Every structure is written in structure tokens, then in C-alpha cells.
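As a representative case, we now present a protein record of this kind.
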Amino acid sequence: MEHRLTADDRKKQLVKIGLMMLRTKPIHELSIDEIASAAGISRGLLFHYFPSKRDYYVAVISAAGRRLLRVTKPDDSLAPEQQLREMLTQFVAFIERRRAAYISFVRGAAGGDDFAVEVYDATRASLTKRILTYLGTPEIADDPASADYLRIHAWLSYTEDLAIEWSGLAEADRPYSASHLVQHSIEALHTLRKL
């Protein structure tokens, strides 16, 4: 006798399939038919769990943002400077491991898909707030109009782009290691904060 999934388990399964497909395709190119087929259900049943294609895409891209935040969260027992280093180490490793999916996440936002932009912005704001906390200025984390908040937010884009470009090179062609990239990014952050 086949075990039937609960509605919640089926939704999780469908989102997981979407996340796997997101590794090689931008969010707007995910095929609902392929996803339903991979889950062993009909297209119509997928829409029982997610009322529209947009609702499904929002669930997948939101899960991608949560995954990034989860895997980059350092151990709370570390000193703030170590938390910053650990977060960046995991951030660079995540981009290196899942480069195509990460680019899909970023480009989905850059492409102007409203749901992708919202999730990307919320994820970037969460990362920025974490960094401000590690830097000992948590009060700025709730003020996106402050100069320091904007500076950290922009620095994160710099680090992200550096990691994307670096990870796209063949290992033998990379001018430095991942740990050097992290160290460089931390030095750039401290330099930027002095300007």
C-alpha cells in the first residue's frame, strides 16, 4: 500500500524539487509540468497545493533565501569578528557549491520578477543586519537609511560579486584561495567603514 503524503509534506516535496531544479535554471524557467512529473502527481494537483505558478515560484525562491540564511549563520558562541569570518566563509562556500542556483536567485531579482526581488531584498537585508550586529552596531540594523547600513549593504554586493566571479574560474585559474577571498573582503569592509 502506497503511503500518501500529508498536504504539508507534499508542499515541502514540491518546493524541494523546485530548489533542485533551481540549480540549473532561473526561477521563471522552471517547468510546472516537469515538477509535477518529478513528484509523481498531475499538474492540476500541483495547483491544488499552490493556487498559481507565481505562488509556487514564491515558495521556491523563499525557500532558497531561507536556506542561504540558515547555512551562513555562524555559531552564536563565537566572538563577533569570528562570527563575521565564519558567515563569510560559509557565504563564499555556498556560492561556490551552488553557483548556478545562486546566480539564478540573483538574476531572478535583477530580472525584475517582483517576488524574486522581494525575497532577494529581504535576504540581503537580513545578512546586512547580521553583519552590523557582528560589527557592534546593531542599532543601525533597523535604519536602512543610515550611511553605515547603506555602506554595509553595498559591501555585501561587492563580496557577492567577487565570490561569483571567482567561483566561475577553473580552480587552477583562480588567483587566490577562498580563505584569501574572505580575508580580502573583511579588510575591504574595515577600510570602507573608515571612509
In short: DSSP finds nine helices and no strands in the chain. Residues 114-134 form the longest helix (21 residues).
